[in-house]
TrEMBL record:
Gene name tied to this protein: CDC123
Record-linked InterPro entries: CDC123
Coiled coil: none
Taxonomic source organism: Denticeps clupeoides (denticle herring)
Function: ATP-dependent protein-folding chaperone for the eIF2 complex. Binds to the gamma subunit of the eIF2 complex which allows the subunit to assemble with the alpha and beta subunits.
Family annotation (Pfam families): D123
Highest taxon above the source species: Eukaryota
Name of the protein in its database record: Translation initiation factor eIF2 assembly protein
């Protein structure tokens, strides 16, 4: 994968091209001091008074005003992203366990807890294999109008040399009966959408397209991603997608009809744990951080106090 492919997949590059086929969004340049704040993990400060903890967070009044204005223009609830990624590995930290935000502080909490956001900021070209110097990146906060997407309607499409070669169910950890019963209809609708609105219109000929089919059957563009390892290949492997070999046993059939290979989870037996599970912290810490279980918090503080007292007596001895 080339650095240029990654540059081309930035939100502010593809959004103007496909604006009419995706969720309404606003893009705000990220001021340098906000980037520094996002990368700084030393903002939690314990006060002198041992019983209270205070958090000092810098304020960004001008940026905050712009963000609030944008959120209002998008009807008050947004889904936040940086140039490429959303903080989808951090939803556990939000009070509502969702990526829905109504304020800048909610966006900050998610961004600061997300490895994917840190990767965007520090290693955007991690899987690129060209030796050229890294292109300069203008970081941006993307705010997208909040839309309740049903996971069973989401699909990831792999486009190679401007051909749609493969489609995978996006939420492959679940079995959705409507996908198996409507396999052909879904595949045809996505292919039609691709041909009419996407094919030959993007800057690259290799890319990965995320789409959503709504309850009326209409297909929408959700995101564009680089064609390479940095993007999850879901029910395919990158080896399969790049080798040029057949993706399917009945390739002759598919090739004749110019049909992409369509993969989805076929039975409940294959249901797997959520892929973001490893990013979560133990339930106890979630309860503590959200105050959902106050007794647990009291226990935790007692434990800390006891520990401190033990240490003090040890020192005295
Ligand atoms: N505007 C929105 N409102 C509500 N939920 C959304 C919105 N946009 C995306 N989502 C949900 O969040 C998920 C991740 O969104 P998106 O694909 O933009 O993130 P990403 O970080 O680029 O993901 P990936 O790393 O898989 O490419 C989507 O699969 C969808 O379920
Ligand atoms: Mg993406």
């Amino acid at each position: 994968m080339k650095k240029e492919q990654v540059v081309n997949c930035q939100f502010s590059v593809w959004y103007p091209i496909f604006k009419n086929h995706t969720i309404k969004s606003l893009i705000l340049p990220l001021p340098p001091n906000v980037i520094d704040y996002l990368l700084d993990d030393g903002t939690l400060v314990w006060s002198d008074d041992e019983s209270t903890a205070t958090v000092t967070a810098p304020e960004f009044p001008e940026f905050n005003a712009k963000v609030l204005e944008a959120i209002n223009a998008l009807d008050g609830h947004v889904f936040p992203k940086l140039n490429w990624s959303s903080p989808r590995d951090a939803n556990w930290i939000a009070l509502n366990s969702s990526l829905q935000c109504c304020s800048l502080s909610e966006v900050f909490l998610l961004f600061k807890s997300s490895d994917f956001i840190t990767r965007d900021l520090t290693q955007p070209f991690i899987h690129c294999n060209d030796d050229s110097p890294d292109p300069a990146i203008q970081y941006e906060l993307v705010l997208r109008k909040w839309s309740e997407l049903i996971p069973g309607g989401e699909f990831r499409c792999f486009v190679k040399e401007n051909k749609l070669i493969a489609i995978s169910q996006r939420d492959y950890t679940q079995y959705y009966s409507h996908i198996s019963s409507q396999e052909d209809i879904i595949c045809q609708a996505i292919l039609k959408f691709f041909r009419e609105h996407i094919q030959y219109k993007f800057l690259d000929e290799d890319f990965v397209l995320d789409v959503y089919q709504d309850s009326q059957g209409r297909v929408w563009l959700i995101d564009l991603n680089p064609f390479g390892k940095v993007t999850d290949s879901l029910l395919f492997t990158w080896e399969e997608l790049t080798s040029g070999n057949s993706l399917t046993a009945n390739q002759a059939d598919n090739a004749q009809q110019e049909r992409p290979e369509f993969r989805y989870t076929t039975s409940e037996v294959t249901v797997q744990p959520s892929p973001c599970l490893s990013y979560r912290i133990p339930r106890d810490f979630v309860d503590l951080s959200t105050g959902e279980d106050p007794y647990k918090l009291i226990d935790f503080l007692k434990l800390k106090k006891g520990q401190q007292e033990d240490e003090e007596t040890e020192e005295e001895v």
